[in-house]
Amino acid sequence: MKTALVIGSGLGGLAAALRLRKMGLNVTVIEKQERPGGRSNVLMENGFRMDTGPTILVMKDTFDETYRALGYDINQRLHFTQLDPNYRIYFHDGDSIDLYSNMARLAAEVDRVEPGSGERLFQFLGANARKYELAMEFVTRNYDHITDLANPVAGVRLLETQAHQRMYAQVSRFFQSDKLRKAFSFHSMFLGLSPFDALSIYSLITYADMARGMFYPKGGIYSIIEDLLTLAAEMGVEVRTQAPAAEILIQNGRAVGVRLENGETLSADLVVSNADLPYTYQKLIPAAHRRDYPDRRLERMEYACSGYLLYLGVDRTYPQLQHQALYFSDDYRANLDAIFRTRTLPGDPSFHLNVPTQTDPSLAPPGHSLIYMLAPMPNLQGGVSWDSAAPQVRETLLSRLEQIVDPHIRSHIVWEREYRPDDFASRINAVHGTAFGSLAHGLFQSAYFRPHNKARDIQGLYFVGQGTYPGIGMPMVLLSARLLAERVARDFHL
Ligand SMILES: Cc1cc2nc3c(=O)[nH]c(=O)nc-3n(C[C@H](O)[C@H](O)[C@H](O)COP(=O)(O)OP(=O)(O)OC[C@H]3O[C@@H](n4cnc5c(N)ncnc54)[C@H](O)[C@@H]3O)c2cc1C
């Protein structure tokens, strides 16, 4: 039986391990941290169960397909609720709007903010539906040659949707008000890109989110990781935690195993790295074997943004809040330029506010709530000192909570944790402390141009997760696991 070693137990690493097992390989996952899950992780303390990473589950079909490929039905194993509204959006001036996935309600809400824009909303979503369908053609395939990119029909149709324009500029053609422009352009931040720089093709996420629905699994996102771990145990995949890899062993140009930090060596027919791809090349592969990705190329790549997270347990409930919300600073552009261009600390950070206990009170002791705040921040390339910045950002976020949630919020905090950009670097080996994923989704780091899931310079070495294609986010890393499995099946004639 062929053997595979998967370095890293992120969502993509676990999905890949299970798919390879299903194909008949003997698979072991080695994970640096104590708890598997990578960026999709959890804190379980003092009766609180807080998802620490992703909370927005869109493109649920990618989760359904992953389970189907393994021979299971995810809906029989986990209980999903569709959220509606998807988000409440708070603005600097105290106004707020709800982004419903019920289209009639969404149109009414949009019309309230900008009279007459309801009609244009449908044109906007229609244009993005088209982008979504066409873009799927590019994200659900393995690339071998640049000509694989050139499906002329899909390419021409994509150009017709103006997919090459900037996202914010294109949203601005449909909506005049600053509020709606913000509300329909922020999604690119989840890919580590400013909407002022992102190609408008990424409005497909806005469509996936608004029109295809956002879901919440009971127990939170980490319940999916837990379920994958249960399947791993049932299917015979060993997941070893606190087992950091120190080096990918290479003989005669072929990956033959891994040396762990404790000196133990594990051999395998193939090695799949789910750890950040730039980190894998820089730290786990000796320079002599790195023809394709020498340090100078890795340093020239464009890295995504980071984030500061504040997790709070409070001793009261807030029936007026929505499960998911966003706060946009008044000067959206200045906020985004600080994060993505000057890489300095934004003065009035925009943030994501998640209150999962609104849907699932079982995540906290009775009468308590969980509050999750995620403020996108510059990655560590900007040199911000987080020992001095973190208390400042925490203070700004708490002041905003006083304005939009409860003027006495501080007196209700009974549990608190934070996660900073330097934590992403030290805990999960994210190069430059990126949060959502390592490599930004510029044109030349997407599709064929993103690092491939098979190393060209080292036989038997593969990649899965956000660093390879299709890219960042839970649905994309699940697709990357599918593409990896297809690639291995072809290479090993399985
Ligand atoms: C705060 C936050 C919010 C997010 N919000 C959303 C969201 O709402 N919706 C969404 O779809 N996506 C979201 N994302 C993005 C999404 O979580 C990630 O893109 C995705 O989970 C990455 O999965 P992955 O398979 O690439 O592995 P990762 O999660 O990146 O895991 C890699 C694993 O490799 C391990 N590792 C590293 N080095 C070694 C080593 N030497 N030896 C062994 N193991 C090693 C790490 O410890 C880690 O466990 C969010 C991410 C963050 C951080």
Automatic annotation (TrEMBL):
InterPro entries for this protein: Amino_oxidase, Carotenoid/retinoid_OxRdtase, FAD/NAD-bd_sf
Keywords assigned by UniProt, alphabetized: Carotenoid biosynthesis, Oxidoreductase
GO biological process: carotenoid biosynthetic process
Pathway info: Carotenoid biosynthesis
Record flagged with keyword Oxidoreductase: yes
GO molecular function, one term: oxidoreductase activity
Domain Amine oxidase: 11-488
Matches recorded under Pfam families: Amino_oxidase
Protein family: Belongs to the carotenoid/retinoid oxidoreductase family.
Full protein name: Amine oxidase domain-containing protein
